Amino acid sequence: MTARLVVVSNRVGPVKDVGRAGGLAVALVDALKSRDGIWYGWSGKIDEAAGTKLSLEGAGNLTLCTLDLTEQEYDDYYNGFANRCLWPLFHYRIDLTAFDRQYYDGYLRVNNKFARGLNPLLRPEDLIWVHDYHFLAFAHELRSLGAQQRMGFFLHIPFPSREVLATLPNHDALVRALFAYDVVGFQTQSDCDRFTDYVIHEAEGSVLGDKIRAYGRTIEARAFPIGIDAMAFAEMAKEDGEAKRQDLKMRKMLGDRAQIIGVDRLDYTKGLPERFLAFERLLEDYEELRGKVTLLEIAPVSRAEVEEYKDIRAQLEGMTGHINGRFSEYDWTPLRYLNRPFSRRSLAGLYRASKVGLVTPLRDGMNLVAKEYVAAQDDEEPGVLVLSRFAGAARQMREALIVNPYDIKGVADALKRALDMPLEERKERHASLKQGLIREDAAHWRDNFLQALAGEAVS
Ligand code: GDG
Asked: Can you point out the beta strands (E) in 241-359?
């Protein structure tokens, strides 16, 4: 009998029409359904009376289980410690990191509250899989209530170098709390190495293969690079009605112009100002491209309440006006910058209609857009991926044109090379990238993690 699975993440679902949400949700929902699982997290609601009262909702073979937050909890735990402290710090933005004691206390309180909410539902043989930087201390809190189950943690964002992490006043307590898990998973081997390096030097830990010992416990630390549902995404880009409609409409509008596409949650880690500068440089240095190439940047607004996100938004609006003012012709707008979200199906079609996928984060745990862009291409006439070396995805996607996003001229030149690349070379690079996506897809990532969590050897 397979053990029941409990997934813990800040936001739960979606469960209905899950295909729309993407590979990660599909992979988790499939696993939860086959194991009568529970998906547990924040309801997304703010309620002043919010305690540890759970809302339960059955959805087929799985149960969605959620808690509300109070305004104060939301401010301290979510906007505060998670998004104004851990997020910038783990992406190496010490300059944007708010080290506020109140945020930290709120974060621990909310981790404890979620642990108290879940504890009464647990069965002894359950496997508990916790996701991301919102819940670093969750296992620690659950163990303090007596829970003995196997618990695993997967970090979706980068793990910083020890010098950067050490700037956080409570770094020791947080890493110590991670040792309450049995398995700690990272996006890349480099993230895992940085974790190990921290533990050896700051906590006098020792390493034995995939096992690492410190604070009186031995745990397993490994890389589990996250994938997408590559086959399904490729199929959607090729066959879905809405994807085809967008693809055709875009190609018709472009005529013989080439399109470069960027798709990102609007976030300062995604390197958008540098990207816009590189595009401007492309038009500056290669005059023959003026009137012949456009950049479509789709960047739906996220975390709009956090001050730093307002700043980046204003900056990008200014840059768009500047670039378009400088280069536009009455029949050509070089940069189209859109803040509204698109459906996944539409995105698939837009990726397919674009000759270049431009993915240039300054730091990124993995970056799924890079993978989606490749999966969406026409095998016979594929576009070229230009990818930042600082995205986790660059470790796997070696056949992309790998760039340093801070090197504006370097990115402009890579764009030129991508636009000029002969079909044969494009096909070769694409075939090999796509094979990798299919081999290391979302199901592969999930199954490997669950094997490790169950204490089995991982292939
Ligand atoms: C974190 C880590 C890691 C974007 N715009 C729209 C839209 N999207 C979708 C993309 C893609 C997803 O959002 C973004 O995923 P990323 O991986 O690029 O980045 P984060 O949101 O920062 O995710 C990251 C990831 O977790 C998984 O572990 O790779 O490193 O930071 O799927 O397509 N989706 C729709 N409309 C949009 O306008 N429907």
From this structure: 258-263, 293-298, 335-338, 356-359
